[in-house]
Amino acid sequence: MHQDWIWGLVGGLMIGAGAGVFLLINGRIMGASGIIGGLIDGSGRDTVSERIAFLGGLVAVPPLLVPLYRNVDTHVSHTIWVLILAGLLVGTGTRIANGCTSGHGVCGISRFSLRGIVATAFYLLGGALSLVVFRHILGVI
Amino acid sequence: MRNFFAFLSGGLFGAGLLVAGMVDSAKVQGWLDIFGNWDPTLAFVMGGAVGVMFFVWIFASKREKSVLGSPMPGPFPRLVDRNLVLGSLLFGAGWGLAGLCPGPAMGSLSFNGWEGWLFIIAMGVGMALAPRVKGWLSVFDRSTLEVPPCENIPEEERALARDSRAPAR
């Protein structure tokens, strides 16, 4: 669809606004992997309620907007090993690199952080290679 | 109050992901599929979000504290190291495989059924395992094999070592 990029831009502005609220009002970096990871490894012990509130908004608000859409296509994989392997890779990788698309990407690139830019370059490379291997060579996705 | 604005921020993030179509894993994979049917939408999403945050950072740099009084984040680490590069490669591989990264995986949880939950659980396990995997990666780090120079040994420990060598009277 040729209008996708407009909605992409509008959605991107909203994501930026969410990150801006979290930074200016709460004084925190909006990084999804850090917010979740801090709950799992206990490093976010002092900010548990704030983390849960953020994740609550992230999970609960999208379905409230669904009446505005006819249907939401997610195309999530139904293959069990794909979901498990991908989840393990995403969880491990984001915690080792200390950030994901929201932390390193949205919040890092926008302040010209070298770490954010390098991380983004390498997860894009990893993603492109993943598509080459799993889609074009192995044909499993 | 902090929780209210955290919820609002998460809500804006989730709503933005839905509007942008980033809850659709096929669209995300389309962006990464540069040798297939490439979909540039994610560049506009990233551009929009980074554009807003560029101005937010300018504004934030003039403030000592956030609106609710907590200190602004930072100073940030500046070191580009092995963990940053290898961790990002692993993350990217998983991102491409399922078309999900942590934010959209949470945002689309209510549409994804058991598949979405399975991914989130595996992601949580991966996060819990990350310190161990980080340890495995350190086999590449030659500096761990070197003995630290004695200037790095704290004075108390050196004094202790001196005392234990002193002849008993």
Describe this structure in words.
- The complex is a heterodimer of chains A (141) and B (169).
- With 141 residues, chain A is an all-alpha fold.
- Chain A has one domain.
- Chain A has helices at residues 4-24, 32-40, 48-65, 80-97, 101-109, 114-137.
- The radius of gyration of chain A is 17 Å and the shape is globular.
- The model of chain A has no long low-confidence stretch (mean pLDDT 95).
- By secondary structure, chain B is mainly alpha-helical.
- Chain B has one domain.
- Chain B contains seven helices and no strands.
- At the A-B interface, helix 1, helix 2, helix 3, helix 4 and helix 5 of A face helix 1, helix 2, helix 3, helix 4 and helix 5 of B.
Secondary-structure topology with pairs:
The complex is a heterodimer of chains A (141) and B (169).
Chain A: H1 4-24, H2 32-40, H3 48-65, H4 80-97, H5 101-109, H6 114-137
Chain B: H1 2-20, H2 25-32, H3 41-61, H4 82-98, H5 102-107, H6 113-137, H7 155-165
Helix pairs in contact in B: 2-4
Distance between the termini of chain A: 22 Å
Number of helices of chain B: 7
Order of helices and strands of chain A: HHHHHH
Please state roughly what percent of the residues of chain B sit in beta strands, choosing from under 5%, 5-15%, 15-25%, 25-35%, 35-45% or over 45%.
under 5%
Structural class of chain B, please? Answer: mainly alpha
Q: Tally the structural domains of chain B.
A: 1
Largest sheet of chain B: none
Q: What is the multimeric organization of the chains shown?
A: heterodimer
Rg measurement of chain A, Å: 17 Å
Query: Largest chain interface and its two residue counts?
Result: A-B, 107 and 115 residues
What average pLDDT do the residues of chain B reach? 89
Low-confidence stretches of chain A: none
The proportion of residues forming helix of chain B, as a percent range, comes to 55-70%
Q: Poorly predicted ranges of chain B (pLDDT <50, ≥5 residues)?
A: none
What does the radius of gyration of chain B come to?
Answer: 24 Å
**Could you describe the largest sheet of chain A, including whether it forms a barrel?**
none
Number of domains of chain A: 1
Mean pLDDT reading of chain A: 95
